[in-house]
Amino acid sequence: MQTIVISLFLVLMQSYESQAYEVVSTINSIEIRYYPPAMKVRVESSKTENNNFNALFRYISGNNSAGEKIAMTTPVYMDKNGPSEVMEFVLPAKYDSIAPEPKGKGVAVYQAKAGYFAAIRYSGYSNESKEKTHKELLLTALKQAEKETLGSPVVLSYDAPYKFYNRRNEILVEIKN
């Protein structure tokens, strides 16, 4: 029994490398951040056939040109704004400019450009209602602050599905600096 409790504790306390950013200012509960370039892996699918997580997980599990296992990082980016859904994993910092090519169909590796983004954080399990509410809060606050947005907001998830407490989710949108 003690071994099970210790194992569960270690799983719940597991931490992942997170994408680097610098908070440059705040507007109430919104952070304005600078993100340097980062390598990402992405997959896009129709909303009816969404198997994005599995395709990305296979890539980091070794379904890549190097046959290399790649550590999981945070956050996971999810863009549900268009007719399809996009999911992206940020690759560990050691892949600062190059990463193994994917073998999976529809999986692509690219370097995200540097930029300024606004983020609003919320907790608990994410759902459409929470995402909609926080997107509206973020966009309203940015409009009041006369900050121009570039593109549509995306959802960021920082925690594994089995984490129950202190969950971290964010809505992020690029802004003109």
Write the layout of secondary structure elements.
Layout: H1 2-13, E1 17-18, E2 22-27, E3 30-35, E4 38-46, H2 52-60, E5 73-74, E6 76-79, E7 84-90, E8 107-112, E9 115-122, H3 128-144, E10 149-157, E11 169-175
Parallel strand pairs: 1-5
Antiparallel strand pairs: 2-3, 3-9, 4-7, 4-8, 6-7, 6-10, 9-11, 10-11
What does this structure look like?
- There is one protein chain.
- This protein is of the alpha+beta class.
- The protein has one domain: Alpha-Beta Barrel (Multidrug-efflux Transporter 1 Regulator Bmrr, Chain A), CATH 3.20.80.10.
- The chain has 3 helices and 11 strands, in the order H-E-E-E-E-H-E-E-E-E-E-H-E-E.
- The protein has a 9-stranded antiparallel sheet. Strands 1-5 form a two-stranded parallel sheet.
- Strand 6 and strand 7 form a beta hairpin.
- It starts with a helix and ends with a strand.
- The N terminus is likely disordered.
Q: Unreliable runs, pLDDT <50, ≥5 residues?
A: 1-13
Which structural category fits the helices and strands? alpha+beta
Query: In percent terms, what proportion of residues is strand?
Result: 35-45%
**End-to-end CA span:** 54 Å
CATH superfamily: Regulatory factor, effector binding domain
Query: Class in CATH?
Result: Alpha Beta
Shape: globular
Order of helices and strands: HEEEEHEEEEEHEE
Cα Rg: 17 Å
CATH topology-level name: Multidrug-efflux Transporter 1 Regulator Bmrr, Chain A
Number of DSSP helical runs: 3
Q: What's the story with the biggest beta sheet?
A: 9 strands, antiparallel
Q: What number of domains?
A: 1
Give the neighbour order of strands across the main sheet: 2-3-9-11-10-6-7-4-8
The portion of residues assigned to helices is 10-25%
